[in-house]
Specification:
This is Polynucleotide kinase PNKP phosphatase domain-containing protein. The protein is 35% helix and 16% strand. With 162 residues, it is of the alpha/beta class. The protein has a single domain, classed as Rossmann fold (3-Layer(aba) Sandwich), CATH 3.40.50.1000. The termini are far apart.
């Protein structure tokens, strides 16, 4: 099997691989402090279950990271992945001004990825993203190992911020 023929395992970041609890307080105030929220991301502790699943998937799949974080967070995000020993792989991020819901932006990228490669699985904590991906025929692993945050759900789906 050549590298390009290996299937893809697609992983979300926030509350799938990284624990965002320490920075969610920036979203509890009005107006929400998005700059502070994203600036604190490099300090996210890893979520052991998600990290283990990602490393295991890398044995049979090429890893792709799919996040709702804005493009301006790329350097910090790539550094965080490397610092925590996660497998190398392309990182797909939201354009800085793209405020569409995560279920729309992520499904768009999944479809693009699946045009040339098998997407073995999507691992994500966002229930609406998971529902949309399953309806589109993708195998989904729901990342339910992080503490749920209604604030983060609103950010993902209503404000198109992460």
């Amino acid at each position: 099997m050549t590298r390009s023929s290996r299937p893809l395992a697609v992983f979300d970041l926030d509350n799938t691989l990284s624990d965002t609890r320490h920075r969610q307080h920036h979203l509890d105030r009005r107006p929400r402090d998005w700059d502070a929220f994203f600036t604190a991301a490099p300090h996210d502790p890893p979520l052991a279950t998600g990290v283990r699943l990602c490393r295991e998937a890398a044995a049979d799949c090429d890893i792709v990271y799919l996040t709702g974080r804005p493009e301006r967070c790329r350097a910090d995000t790539v550094a965080w992945l490397a610092a925590h020993g996660l497998p190398e792989g392309p990182v797909h991020m939201r354009r800085n001004q793209d405020r569409r819901p995560a279920r729309v932006t992520k499904l768009e990228i999944l479809r693009r990825l699946s045009a040339n490669r098998e997407v073995r699985m999507l691992v994500d904590d966002d229930e609406l993203v998971c529902d949309a991906a399953e309806r589109a025929g993708f195998r989904v692993v729901r990342a339910r190992w992080a503490e749920e945050s209604e604030t983060l759900v609103q950010a993902q789906e209503q404000e198109g911020r992460t």
